[in-house]
Design brief:
- The structure is a single chain.
- By secondary structure, the protein is of the alpha/beta class.
- 25% of the residues lie in helices and 22% in strands.
- The strands form seven sheets. A nine-stranded mixed β-sheet has the order 1-2-7-8-9-11-10-5-6, sandwiched between helices. Strands 12, 13, 14, 15, 16, 22, 23, 24 and 27 form a nine-stranded mixed β-sheet that branches.
- The longest helix is centred in the last third of the chain and has 19 residues.
Length: 614
């Protein structure tokens, strides 16, 4: 085995040792054997830290994140009782004699380099660590499972099916034991204690147990960090994730699973285990699914959306799946960013779940997406991004690995982020769709009833690379623009949206960031410039003065004119070479809407009447 591995490493031109091992699904012997002492007082700097920022979000003691140059809750616990001291012995993990807990960004960078966990990319705004996650460059939704504890609260409330696949307590217990046994063979482990949710009324304490430094780096970027060790006094996690990504479930067929990959959550035991996938997004989206379970129980509305706020305090929400422009459009130089992906809406307003952003890097340039481009610097982390030249410069146009290349970064990398991470009730709610048929207009105004219909429908396209097996955009309907993360029935979230719309008089819009002039393969993708012009016209309020044209099929209203947008593009039929082909495509898409909505014709109001008319 060792000889085979050595030959693989020798053949892996252009890749580090860890990348070659990851590609084969083998745990790195380097990452499990190097034991560097790295804490706040004995850190040896390997690279210059001129771009190092210690700004962060604080939680637990205060609902308001702050900037603090003294951010440091790092500790290194050594000795036979290290696991007990850090609080993971109660999980059954007692093997590691060194625990790296809540390492600072600088310390994590040193661990990543010393462990040979990836490469250092020389990005324009600062050196950035880069990892390769092997064959898993997106989520693996068919391998996500939730334990069905018969008679429990979760059993009664979870919407069981293809999204929330049930597995048994016995299977979980076997996998849990396997994960614990694996960690008990290691000399060291990485533990992160942090928070999900800026609002103290619904904030959750989350613990991650990882094998590698870059995984702790990822969750340090994405979750809300503690200010210092005192913020973690008496820390008792509401949920723990044990990530044994280097291991696989060889007994998956006996367990009734779909592959050797397993991402399994047990709500009642407040624990999850991850096997077989190195993709960082599994850590983040798993906790998001749990927030989608917990918050509605408190009457709060969890949302798969980005959010920003204007100088006048006017917040806006951007709903949409990966690849529709959620992250790009919320990073606006004229508005403060609240967050790019996961939020809640309660009686006080909206609030971020996270402490960072996870942006796609495909075709990234400073001209088109300046905020995201400049966020790629020290403390950020690139994932599955190609490097070029002797200087390891990021090549965002090389998608030979995947079109789902990503960068995670702490939110303070965005210059104009909204420091409180909470804002008032939104004035505008934008539903982003990536229309693969080339039918939808770039912008449309919705009535409150139409907003309910389109929120439940959640029409978009699965964009290449965001899930395994997806290599080109495929039309789909994703309830609430996030069906993959909904633990309750979609109508539960729709009812919460209806309540918020009525109470706060918010205006809903459709914005299409997909194709114009024909379907995928014939037409062209809307430019970021066009989409942003439509969004800006909404947010600056000028759109209220325009005239409107009603679409005869979908019933929404289309603006007659928007500055910097071709008037023909506003009327998609005008961009098609053959108008009759557009009519055929529109009818086809309208029928898809109607067929999809049949399963949601429940409750006191049948919202299907506010959909397209055939």
């Amino acid at each position: 085995m060792l000889a085979t591995t050595s030959r693989t490493l020798l053949r892996s031109s252009g890749r580090t040792a860890i990348q070659a091992l990851v590609a084969r699904g083998i745990s790195s012997p380097v990452s499990s054997s190097i034991g560097i002492r790295s804490n706040s007082t004995t850190t040896k700097k390997i690279f210059p830290t001129s771009h190092f920022h210690k700004s962060h979000q604080v939680a637990h003691k205060s609902a308001v994140p702050i900037i603090d140059d003294d951010y440091n809750s790092s500790s290194v616990i050594e000795g036979a009782d290290a696991c007990s001291k850090v609080g993971i012995s109660n999980l059954g993990i007692n093997g590691p004699s060194t625990i790296y807990k809540n390492q600072t960004f600088e310390e994590l960078f040193q661990h990543e380099v010393a462990n040979n966990e990836g490469q250092v990319a020389h990005a324009e705004f600062g050196d950035t660590f880069t990892v390769d996650t092997g064959k898993f460059t997106g989520r693996s939704p068919k391998d996500k499972w939730i334990v069905k504890n018969i008679g429990s609260e979760s059993d009664a409330n979870i919407d069981w099916g293809n999204v929330n696949q049930p597995t048994s307590p016995e299977v979980f217990d076997e996998l849990y034991e396997k994960a614990v046994n694996h960690f008990n063979t290691l000399d060291k482990a990485y533990v992160f204690d942090g928070f999900c949710g800026a609002n103290p009324n619904s904030q959750r304490k989350i613990r991650f147990v990882h094998e590698m430094a870059w995984q702790q780096h990822f969750v340090t970027n994405m979750f809300i960090r503690a200010n210092d060790e005192s913020d973690l006094d008496g820390f008792e996690p509401d949920f723990t994730v044990i990530n044994a990504c280097s291991q696989v479930d060889e007994d998956w067929e006996r367990h009734g699973l779909n592959s050797e990959v397993a991402v399994v959550f047990n709500v009642e035991k407040k624990c999850a285990v991850i096997f077989g996938t190195w993709y960082g997004g599994e850590n983040k989206k798993g906790i998001f699914s749990l927030m989608n379970y917990w918050l509605p129980m408190q009457g709060q509305f969890p949302m798969h959306c980005s959010a920003n706020v204007g100088k006048a305090g006017d917040s806006a929400l951007f709903f949409g799946l990966s690849g529709t422009g959620k992250t790009t459009l919320s990073a606006d130089p004229h508005r403060a960013l609240i967050g790019d992906d996961e939020h809640g809406w309660d009686d006080q307003g909206v609030f971020n779940f996270e402490g960072g952003c996870y942006a796609k890097t495909i075709n990234l340039t400073e001209k088109t997406e300046p905020d995201i481009y400049r966020a790629v610097k020290k403390d950020a982390m690139l994932e599955n991004v190609a490097l070029k030249g002797d200087d390891n410069e990021p090549d965002y146009f090389d998608t030979s690995k995947t079109e789902n290349g990503r960068v995670s970064y702490p939110i303070f990398h965005i210059d104009n982020y909204h420091e409180p991470q909470m804002a008032g009730h939104p004035k505008n709610i934008i539903f982003l769709s990536c229309d693969a048929f080339g039918v939808l207009p770039p912008i449309a105004k919705l009535t409150p009833e139409q907003a309910m219909y389109h929120f439940i429908s959640g029409y978009t396209a699965k964009v290449a690379g965001t899930e395994r097996g997806v290599t080109e955009p495929t039309a789909t309907f994703s309830a609430c623009f996030g069906a993959a993360f909904l633990t309750l029935h979609p109508t539960r979230y729709a009812e919460l949206l209806k309540e918020k719309l009525e109470k706060h008089n918010a205006q809903a819009w459709i914005v299409n960031s997909g194709w114009s002039g024909g379907a995928y393969g014939i037409g062209e993708r809307m430019s970021i410039k066009t989409t942003r012009a439509c969004v800006n016209y909404i947010l600056d309020g000028k759109i209220e003065d325009t005239t409107w044209e009603k679409d005869p099929v979908f019933g929404w209203e289309i603006p007659a004119d928007i500055p910097d947008v071709d008037s023909n593009v506003l009327r998609p039929k005008n961009t098609w070479p053959d108008a009759s082909q557009y009519d055929e495509a529109e009818k086809k898409l309208a029928n898809m809407y109607v067929d999809n909505f049949e399963k949601y014709r429940v409750g006191d109001v049948d919202y299907s009447q506010f959909g397209p008319k055939l």
